[in-house]
Specification:
The structure holds two protein chains of two kinds. Chain A is mostly helical. Among the domains of chain A are: 95 residues, no CATH class; 103 residues, no CATH class. Chain A has 15 helices and no strands. In chain A, helix 4 crosses helix 8 and helix 11 packs antiparallel against helix 15. The longest helix of chain A has 37 residues. Chain A starts with 5 loop residues before the first helix and ends with a helix. By secondary structure, chain B is mainly α. Chain B has three domains: 55 residues, no CATH class; 49 residues, no CATH class; 243 residues, MetI-like (MetI-like fold). Chain B contains 20 helices and no strands. Chain B is globular and about 75 Å long. The relative contact order of chain B is 0.11. The chains are: A mainly alpha, B mainly alpha. The interface between A and B is large, with 135 and 130 residues.
Chain lengths: 299, 368
């Protein structure tokens, strides 16, 4: 590199200032929530807490973790995320595997049907009516089945499968294996990176989804964590969400003695929702970095 | 058994390095695609990619069909799925012109009585009509103006960072918010902006910028800025990935030649980096114009307006998508809601075709 000119110095300064601002802006909001969630409620409401809890306590998490609505919701969320992701990958993967076959009959028609469904959609209301009449409303399956096939993910997978040499599959076929066996024993392991990437996207989508709970279910037992969090955030009083004793305390103001407020409970719940995503984030992000590095190598 | 066959074909050794090469490049393509075409508009590009592999159908069809029976079954399951979950609702659009009752079932799509454009007129004459249309367009256009350039600026900035470690750390945290739901973001906003003890108000009062805490959440005039800024915060890092990928694929020799010619760093950014990523910018621009009414790149209008909206700021936060839910679906006015939804789809379709046409004429870059 050439010597540092005055211009370089100016640009470097600006660049590092921007970098610092972005870093703080992205990390601090989460950190702040974490700090508040570990702070005593009444104390937190007086403000002035920026970097460290002033009155450290676990009581917010104790309340959240002992809540008789949040725990079942957590399990519903986990169940839909795991089942939804696996089934969607399988269904979309098999569809894409079938379509990736060069000599597939009616291939053009199939692809046309798929692409058209990406251009146009019936919109929310006809979709709702459909769910209603195929009896999916108010069942756990309303979370899983409509997301089984994503044409978009199918196209990504197809492009991947197409690069796998035919000779590999054909040699196995001579051995008498059928396409289902080939998919699981050859295609799936070879395509692990693309399946992993898509799994993470689909998984995060499931975990974060509150919309289908809000509009496609009314059964309290089907409520997910994201939906409950939305309810907790959007309602000033937590009466409908929290355990009777707890909401009474929040309403009458006697919570002062118990060490939590609606605000600190909210923060603790938010941390619980974000935690799994931050947990899988390192895996997710490895693929991006890899992708970007490859991109730079090409250039 | 399978492993043996691979060995027999002499492919055992090639399998792994080959697979690695595939996985690396295509993994990148996958992410690239995700970024570029994060929703139904992917079809436009997908079309081009997919059609490469066409094949003629000829002779002995039954035999051929039986030979690929498994593959056909896999695909037909998917086609059946699309028929049920995409095509039946598409047919359902006709209830926008009918008086549909939920009890009449799916066949009611056909059997209910025609009412022509009654529900459209009902919406056009609705008291809130102008407000809703204004909000939808204003929020979308504000986002296009302020949110769209941010990832480009951020990508160029981060490309100028020489310290690889700092670069990687900041980039990594910059796309974390993309994976966090709007529910959580709205929670963060509420706790940062509330009037009593919100963080922003505390800082503003402490530093003496304002005398009394500002009611960011209740005052309608802060709603649009809040929506735009939170959208920038959430999606900037994510969309920067695609521009960064475009920047890293620029031929380094161009920069070296420019240095020899005595070009300054600013000149190199202005005359090499920016023109080189022009086509990427154009494509992303067309895509966000096509989804203008949904909220541009992130498609975030609905989540933001639904989660951050309240009776106080309803005048600036009610948009087409929230109206479909609150005044349509939630009240059982199915035909009315379908009509509004159809209206929005048609407008979006016009937008994407127009923007593509204009981009094609102006710069020769287009999706179709």
């Amino acid at each position: 590199m050439a010597k540092l000119t005055k211009e370089d110095a100016v640009i470097n300064t600006i660049v590092y200032i921007v970098l610092f601002i972005v870093f703080v802006a992205m990390v601090y909001p989460f950190y702040y929530c974490l700090v508040i969630s570990f702070n005593e409620g009444i104390d937190a409401s007086t403000g002035g807490i920026f970097l460290w809890p002033r009155k450290f306590t676990f009581v917010n998490y104790k309340m959240v973790l002992s809540n008789e609505q949040l725990i079942p919701a957590f399990f519903v969320s986990v169940a839909r995320t795991i089942a939804g992701t696996i089934l969607s990958l399988l269904f979309t993967g098999l569809f894409a595997y079938g379509l990736s076959y060069k000599k597939l009959m009616f291939k053009k028609t199939y692809i046309g049907i798929m692409i058209f469904s990406m251009y146009f959609s019936g919109g929310l209301v006809p979709f709702f009516i459909l769910l209603k009449h195929i009896k999916l409303l108010n069942t756990f399956w309303v979370y899983i089945i409509p997301g089984l096939l994503s044409p978009f993910n199918a196209i990504i997978m197809m492009n991947f499968f197409r690069e796998i040499p035919d000779s590999i599959e054909e040699s196995v076929k001579i051995d008498g294996a059928n396409d289902l066996v080939i998919f699981f024993k050859i295609i799936f392991p070879i395509s692990a990176p693309v399946f992993a990437t898509i799994a993470l996207f689909v998984g995060v989508g499931h975990w974060n989804n509150w919309f289908d709970t809000a509009f496609f279910t009314t059964n309290r037992r089907l409520r997910t964590l994201s939906f409950l969090l939305k309810e907790i955030i959007n309602r000033a009083d937590l009466t409908s969400i929290m355990a009777p004793g707890m909401s009474d305390a929040l309403r009458t103001g006697t919570y002062a003695t118990q060490g939590y407020t609606a605000e600190t409970i909210r923060m603790a719940t938010m941390i619980m929702v974000v935690l799994p995503i931050v947990g899988i984030y390192p895996f997710l992000q490895r693929y991006f970095i890899k992708g970007i590095m490859i991109g730079s190598l090409k250039g | 058994m399978v492993g043996k066959a691979v060995e027999k074909a002499g492919l055992g050794r090639q399998l792994n390095p080959g697979a690695d090469a595939i996985s690396n490049t295509t993994c990148f393509d996958a992410i690239h695609l995700y970024l570029c075409y994060g929703d139904w508009r992917g079809g436009i590009v997908a079309n081009i990619i997919v059609n490469k592999g066409r094949h003629k159908i000829n002779g002995k069809m039954l035999v051929r069909f039986r030979l690929q029976l498994y593959r056909q079954v896999f695909v037909l399951m998917g086609i059946l799925f699309l028929f049920i979950f995409s095509y039946i609702p598409m047919v359902g659009i006709i209830i926008a012109f009918k008086n549909y009752k939920l009890a009449s079932g799916l066949l009611g799509f056909f059997t209910s009585e025609w009412v022509g454009f009654r529900y459209f007129t009902e919406f056009f004459t609705d008291l809130n009509f102008t407000t809703i249309v204004r909000n939808t367009f204003m929020i979308s256009i504000l986002k296009l103006i302020f949110t769209f350039p941010m990832p480009i600026i951020f990508a160029i900035t981060i490309n100028e960072v020489r310290n690889q470690k700092a670069k990687r750390i900041v980039q990594t945290v910059s796309y974390l918010p993309h994976f966090i739901s709007w529910v959580v973001v709205s929670g963060i906003l509420f706790s940062f902006l509330n009037q009593q003890n919100g963080l922003v108000n505390q800082i503003l009062v402490l530093t003496g910028v304002v005398d009394a805490p500002v009611s960011f959440l209740a005052d309608p005039k802060y709603f649009w800025p809040m929506v735009v800024i939170s959208d920038i915060w959430k999606e900037m890092g994510w969309w920067a990935i695609i521009f960064l990928a475009a920047i890293t694929s620029i031929d380094l020799q161009m920069y070296e030649a420019a240095v020899v010619d005595g070009a300054s760093r600013t000149q190199r950014i202005w005359y090499i980096t920016l023109p080189s990523i022009k086509s990427t910018i154009m494509i992303v621009m067309i895509l966000s114009l096509g989804n203008l009414l949904g909220g541009g790149l992130g498609g975030s209008n609905f989540d933001q307006c639904y989660l951050l909206g309240n009776p106080v700021n309803n005048d600036v936060s009610e948009i087409l998508q929230t109206y479909v839910l609150t005044n349509g679906l939630a009240q059982g006015r199915y035909s009315f809601a379908t009509a509004i939804g159809l209206l929005q789809s048609v407008m979006s379709l016009i937008l994407i075709y127009t923007s593509n046409y204009v981009a094609n004429k102006l710069s020769g870059v287009g999706l179709f």
